[in-house]
């Protein structure tokens, strides 16, 4: 592994056009009403929308939106389309990695468009980081974020838009959201809009290991990151701050995934660890909590470790740019995360 120079994407503004791609699960078909609401929210805010070919045609192959080559073609068509200013995923899934060998990373690097999504889109984030050396955004997707009823949460949108539009943003301390939610509401019924979202007060971040560090951050869904181990798409995490999050988090699977990173030596080479809130945490009868499980696997470290960060499958969410320089101050219980440089140019 060697040090690579990361380039930043071009900044966006209201009035720009977003290209919508569906890299895995066809949420635009399965959750059609919520998807269309998400599109209307993007337009209401002030963006124009161009759907990728598979998305526009509502192609549905059950668990996926099309063959790997077709999904890659949809993505690359949006990258090459001069009318598209940035790209956003419909949702995640399980099979974004199938696209990777069919992508044109040189073209992706040349176009320098913001590419945003989370969860299984981690496969694209890591591939574009390692093969195109382009920073992408771990942030909102159409259905889960902009499909929120009655409107996208202002905190989630503000985090994305500030990160994506302000090229002068430096030394910016991320706000701690007043409240958070992991409330699951079925989008195959009317529940997603007929049942009010339930929230919890946000107590802030939990210090598992104190310390202060600054460095480049790599953001990933834990399960998807582990699936890339042994491939050229797995990132160089040496001397990086690692931010990992999960959706479905039964303790048995969390222990396995965390242990995989431990066996790979990852926790010995990073300089900081941030754990996001999980949407569906399941202790499976264990007499310990998630933080205790994390520390059991990771072990005692000299670098800062925090949990309960708001980036991932809970609402609202912070948008984070790959390899951006941040400062993690966990010297006290009043944790501060500061963005040290702009994410766009």
TrEMBL record:
Catalytic residue positions: 119, 245, 313
Tell me where in this chain the LD-carboxypeptidase C-terminal domain is found: 215-321
Give the family per the record.
Belongs to the peptidase S66 family.
Keywords carried by this UniProt record: Carboxypeptidase, Hydrolase, Protease
Tell me which CDD domains the record gives: Peptidase_S66_mccF_like
An annotated Gene Ontology molecular function: carboxypeptidase activity
Q: Does the keyword Protease apply?
A: yes
What the entry lists under InterPro entries is as follows: Carboxypeptidase_A_C_sf, Class_I_gatase-like, LdcA_N, Peptidase_S66_N, Peptidase_S66C, S66_fam
Q: What is this protein called?
A: LD-carboxypeptidase
Q: Where is the LD-carboxypeptidase N-terminal domain?
A: 18-139
For the keyword Hydrolase, the answer is yes
């Amino acid at each position: 592994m060697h040090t690579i120079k990361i380039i930043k994407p071009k900044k966006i503004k209201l009035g720009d056009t977003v290209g919508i791609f569906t890299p895995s699960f066809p949420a635009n078909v399965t959750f059609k009403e919520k998807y269309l609401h998400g599109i209307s929210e993007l337009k209401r805010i002030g963006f124009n929308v161009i759907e990728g070919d598979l998305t526009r045609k509502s192609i549905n192959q059950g668990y996926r939106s099309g063959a790997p080559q077709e999904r890659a073609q949809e993505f690359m068509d949006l990258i090459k389309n001069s009318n598209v200013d940035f790209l956003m995923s419909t949702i995640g899934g399980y099979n974004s990695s199938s696209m990777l060998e069919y992508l044109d990373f040189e073209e992706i690097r040349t176009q320098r468009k913001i590419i945003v999504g989370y969860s299984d889109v981690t496969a694209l984030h890591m591939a574009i980081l390692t093969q195109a050396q382009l920073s992408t955004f771990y942030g909102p997707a159409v259905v889960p974020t902009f499909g929120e009823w009655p409107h996208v949460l202002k905190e989630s949108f503000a985090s994305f838009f500030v990160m994506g539009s302000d090229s002068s943003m430096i030394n910016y301390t991320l706000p701690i959201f007043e409240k958070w939610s992991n409330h699951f509401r079925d989008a195959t019924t009317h529940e997603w809009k007929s049942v009010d979202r339930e929230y919890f007060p946000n107590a802030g971040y939990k210090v598992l290991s104190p310390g202060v560090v600054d460095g480049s951050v790599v953001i990933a869904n834990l399960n998807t990151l582990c699936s890339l181990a042994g491939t050229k798409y797995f990132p160089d995490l040496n001397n990086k701050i690692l931010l990992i999050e999960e959706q479905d988090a039964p303790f048995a699977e969390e222990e396995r995934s965390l242990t995989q990173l431990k066996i790979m030596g990852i926790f010995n080479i990073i300089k900081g660890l941030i754990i996001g809130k999980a949407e569906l945490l399941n202790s499976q009868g264990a007499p310990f909590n998630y933080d205790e499980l994390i520390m059991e696997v990771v072990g005692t470290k000299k670098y800062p470790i925090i949990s309960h960060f708001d980036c991932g499958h809970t609402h609202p969410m912070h948008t984070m740019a790959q390899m951006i320089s941040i400062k993690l101050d966990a010297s006290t219980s009043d944790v501060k995360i500061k963005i040290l440089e702009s994410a766009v140019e």
